[in-house]
Design goal:
The protein has about 500 residues and is of the alpha+beta class. It has 16 helices and 20 strands. A seven-stranded antiparallel beta sheet has the order 15-12-14-13-17-18-16. It binds dihydroflavine-adenine dinucleotide.
């Protein structure tokens, strides 16, 4: 095919002919490295010399995205799309496919408008259009700044990009009441592999299904999303309850596994484990005077008291959960700070059967070891558990008690051996307690250890994709692969863990 041999010069000429040259950064540009680093969160995946893009296109509108796709198709140069740059394996900024490949980055950071309530049915059914390059913090701020009773359910860290996050699910503090971010997406604008710009009606329901959780970088470049907003009380209650193992934290945690996913949906309690200390990080959609008696009845083991309560707006609670500072200004959510100071490695699991107390005692032994990292446990249940698994690509629904995220970090330039070997061995040990056949994982906590595609005859193979794909998507993987075959049969949008095309047999 015409695309088999990359023609880098022809590609760049094509870009220069169709996109303002000030938006194109080639490797020789003096600020190329700065632009490449601008949103990378984890220097472990910052591209070395070999894995760098030919150029970065900082698209300022959808026509630039369309031009980049058409130039890439015509000249055999693949694209990596980047919204917030937070991919844990850096797949939006680098290519580590064996043998290397010529590729360019289409960076959407400048496509970041949020239009709240541009709809005829507003304010009865509030909605917003948000461009992919907006951060979650910018979305939350725009939604709630002028109306403290509006919110959007998505992730915690405000610098995450909307584009990647909504492509993979979006779990956060409001999900037990309102579901994942993708459960609240009602329309989208996508540039497909032919460079056409399509809305929901134009792309059809199969593709619209796939882009809401099937993982980023698979089906096209989503330039904007229409989301439905949710109603929250003007005053919510945030609180962190901390307990050490010596103070009986294991008993609280053992009980949390039963109540965390079954409490009324107005309360969400996630758990952060670091060393021998647990933090029960909580959001109640209501007042302190109501949550204290509720928890003393339903979860007395937590020992939550009125003095733990911090009453604030929902937007302030977002800034608080990010900063741990109850007085953090909501404007802090607009700060696009990133840093290259800390390396991280992340993995994930889903727990469907509560882990007994004696087993937690063994598990805590791991947190006294050299290189030990941390865990974040996110309760499911509530609304997120009532959505049927086939309704969106995110399959971890009924029966899931909670998600585990494993995180290790070490200083930039430091030796990560202790941390990476700890997370690998600990993850192996945890296998006995978590979901199996398949051992499920969350695509937004991208982990290349669980498998990478093989490319044969210039197309990613279905069998290599199944290895990791059924762990992220379970029974939805096959349908994602069939959608891929229908919309991107040449496998133009591909990466180390992209959905491979599944062609009809016979
Ligand atoms: P990035 O730009 O790196 O994109 C990620 C992937 O999507 C790449 O494959 C990319 O090519 C593709 N992509 C990006 N934009 C696209 C577009 N417009 N169209 C199509 N494909 C696109 N998750 C969660 O659910 N809840 C949480 O609370 C957190 N917390 C958290 C904290 C921190 C510090 C980090 C680093 C990450 C998280 N995450 C998370 C995970 C986060 O949801 C995940 O990394 C997202 O994919 C990041 O989206 P970005 O746009 O920032 O990433």
């Amino acid at each position: 095919s015409a695309a088999a041999t990359p023609d880098s010069d022809g590609f760049l000429q094509c870009l220069w002919g169709n996109i303002p040259s000030g938006l194109i950064y080639t490797q020789g540009a003096s600020n190329f490295t700065d632009v490449l680093a601008s949103s990378v969160r984890n220097p472990r995946v910052f591209p070395g010399d070999t894995a760098r893009p030919l150029c970065i296109v900082t698209a300022a509108d959808a026509t630039h995205v369309q031009a980049a796709v058409r130039c890439g198709r015509a000249h055999g140069v693949r694209l990596r799309v980047r919204s917030g740059g937070h991919d844990y394996e850096g797949l939006s900024s680098r290519s580590v496919l064996p043998g290397g490949e010529a590729f360019a980055v289409v960076d959407l950071a400048a496509l970041r408008a949020v239009a709240v309530g541009s709809d005829a049915v507003w304010p009865l059914a509030p909605t917003a259009w948000v461009e992919s390059g907006a951060t979650l913090g910018e979305l939350y701020y725009a939604v709630a700044k002028n109306n403290s009773e509006l919110a959007f359910p998505a992730g915690i860290c405000p610098t995450i990009g909307v584009g990647g996050h909504l492509s993979g699910g979006g779990i956060g503090m409001l999900m037990r009441k309102f579901g994942l971010a993708v459960d609240n997406v009602v329309d989208a604008r996508l540039v497909n592999a032919d460079g056409d710009l399509l809305d929901r009606a134009g792309m059809g329901e199969d593709l619209f299904w796939a882009i809401r959780g099937g993982g980023g970088g698979n089906f096209g470049i989503v330039v904007a999303w229409k989301v439905s907003l949710v109603k929250v009380p003007s005053t919510v209650t945030a609180f962190n309850v901390m307990r050490t193992v010596d103070q009986g934290a294991i008993d609280v945690l053992t009980r949390w596994q039963e109540v965390g996913p079954t409490l009324p949906v107005d309360i969400n309690i996630r758990v952060i484990v670091m060393g021998q200390q647990l933090t029960f990080q909580s959001l109640y959609l209501g007042k302190c005077a109501d949550v204290v008696p509720m928890l003393s009845t339903l979860f007395p083991e937590l020992g939550m008291r009125s003095s733990d309560c911090l009453e604030m707006t929902w937007l302030q609670s977002v800034a608080f959960f990010d900063s741990w500072n109850p007085n953090a200004p909501v404007e802090s959510l607009l700060n696009r700070r990133t840093g290259l100071s800390t390396f991280t490695k992340n993995k994930s699991d889903y727990v469907k059967q509560a882990i007994p107390k004696e087993e937690w005692q063994k598990i805590f032994g791991w947190f006294a070891m050299n290189g030990a990292g941390m865990l974040i446990l996110e309760p499911h249940g509530g609304f997120v558990g009532t959505v049927p698994a086939p309704a969106t690509p995110y399959p971890h629904r009924t029966g899931v008690l909670y998600n585990i995220q494993y995180i290790v970090f070490w200083p930039s330039g430091g030796d990560g051996t202790a941390a990476t070997s700890w997370i690998g061995s600990f993850y192996d040990f945890m296998g006995q307690y978590v979901s199996n056949n398949p051992r499920e994982a969350y695509v937004n906590y991208r982990d290349l250890d669980i498998g990478q595609n093989e490319v044969v005859n210039d197309v990613s193979t279905f069998d290599s994709g199944r290895v990791w794909g059924e762990r992220y998507f379970a029974g939805n993987f096959r349908r994602l692969a069939a959608v891929k075959a229908a919309v991107d049969p040449t496998d133009f949008f591909r990466n180390e863990q992209s959905i491979p095309p599944l062609f009809q047999q016979g």
